[in-house]
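Two entries, shown back to back:
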Amino acid sequence: MFTHEHIALQDGVRQLIEKEINPYLDQWEEAEIFPAHEVFKKLGKAGYLGVNKPVEFGGMGLDYSYEIAFCEAIGSVRAGGVGMAIAVQTDMATPALARFGNDSVREQFLRPSIAGDYVACLGVSETGAGSDVASLKTTARKDGDDYVISGSKMWITNATQADWMCLLANTSDDKPHRNKSLICLPLKQENGKPVAGVTMSKIKKVGMWSSDTAQVFFDEVRVPQRYRIGEEGMGFTYQMRQFQEERLSGATRRVTALSDVINDTIDYTRQRQVFGKPLLDNQAVHFRLAELKTEVEMLRSLVYRAAGVHMGGGDMTELASMAKLKAGRLCREVTDSCLQYWGGMGFTWENAVSRAWRDLRLISIGGGADEIMLTIICKHMGILPSRAV
């Protein structure tokens, strides 16, 4: 799938990661936040935050295969929270804006996000509406030329550092799939202080420590209607399409992360002596690692196939859902199996496999739980029960 140009892109991304990101991860993990503006500016200056975004707004304008190559490379960040935060900027909060936003709103929000001057976040999930997006309660009522937003959003990655949010809110009383709009919601004033009516509560998580995650509250927050992305009432449709790129991005990054976990475990078990020989020499160990590697490579092939369908103008929903499902299951299987071979050391904080074990458990939950992926796949197979949503 990749040409020399794709490989050159990946080499550049990995070099930046090894110089500007991986050496600082331990301190960012301990602080439970990383300097998003500083890191994103370096990525933006190199052009990596707009690989497949429009050239007229600062992007590279490359096809989607280059974004997949970029996602693979970002998977080499050795802390899931930072890689996830970058993916929010490139594959979660901006695809709909790039595709459906008018030139004015793209100039105001997309260009600085591609440049790394703005940090973006995505506001979809709520305390009572995670995977069930249609039931979200946050409203944006019209008042003159403005929307007035009330409600809250949950599990918001990048929230405490974000300059703006790609917000999904109810803008009418129409049916649940037709009453929602995507809105670019500024979160900071020019002086850096929060926009009036916006408050946040940071969330402490099991993993992904270096990613700042918060619940965000909106109390009569005003935003111009011209900040809406595309047509009013089309937000649910736009977000469902945006979800597909988010899910495939997540699966792609985990191909690299899981390969790294396996390789780290090979190195460790080769060095660890048990009963006078390397642990890796046990057939049960090296056979199991071979099985896991095979599964990861099958996931990589599924990712490439889904990307090919997307590039060809087809609907990748079923394949992206399969890739997301398989990635989540493998994140649990690979990290747990490999941690076992690290013995007591695997149950400490000071190694890559235990961090991956904590971080990657999220993949079966975030961005659509495994059960939602199974429901989507069943829908495409035509086997949903008659009363299923």
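entry 2 starts here
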Amino acid sequence: MRASVGLIGVGAFGEFMLPYLLPHCRIGAYDPVRDLEPLSERWAVVPESLEEVAAKDIVILAMPVQRMADVCRQISPYLKPGAVVLDVCSVKEEPITAMLENLPDHVDIVGTHPLFGPQTGANGITGLRIALCNVRGDRLDCVEAFLSKELRLKTIITTAEEHDRQLAYVQGLTHLMSKIVVEMDMPVLDHTTETFDIMMKMVESVRYDSEELFRAIENRNRFVGETREKFFDAARTIEERLARPGPKTDSD
């Protein structure tokens, strides 16, 4: 019998997961703001109440990190003993703390962060990376086996602190740089180089991410502030260097 999965939060990433999970499990979905009836016509997903979704074998929390503690408190009475609760937040310390503080002791908890999204996974997710944090219980091995063998993802076992330290650069810096380029509103350019095209590929991969996600990456990871400060300090240093006369050459 296939496991039952409750998906709480069916935004861009929640919907993106469906075709990969549905061959392996039965999914009931809940979203507080989205009408899921059209979604259920495209996918074999059953719209259910929060109480029904929270009572599944596996519960996936796919909502913004700022809502995590509140949702955990809401679902806590309905989680059955032995269930596994996972999150998919882009930061790990804050949601893991929220789950530990607000979920009952009779559920196992695994923190996850798929290091890809609907744009970067548009051509398939085989070989893409996902970070895993064992929070409580002994189900990490089962989760990792499913992700690596069935979904063919590359798994990275880490701690919440180490994840957030590294993602302060990996996401905090790249999303910041991309948003700055988007804000420049450049014209259409024909005379591009390969290096420029690579940069624009980075920009396009996050251009349509929600403002909520961008703020979560930049403001909910305690290590990003230092990274952002280093970036702007370095930018000012380069600007000051360019304002000074350059070194003399033999042709001067």
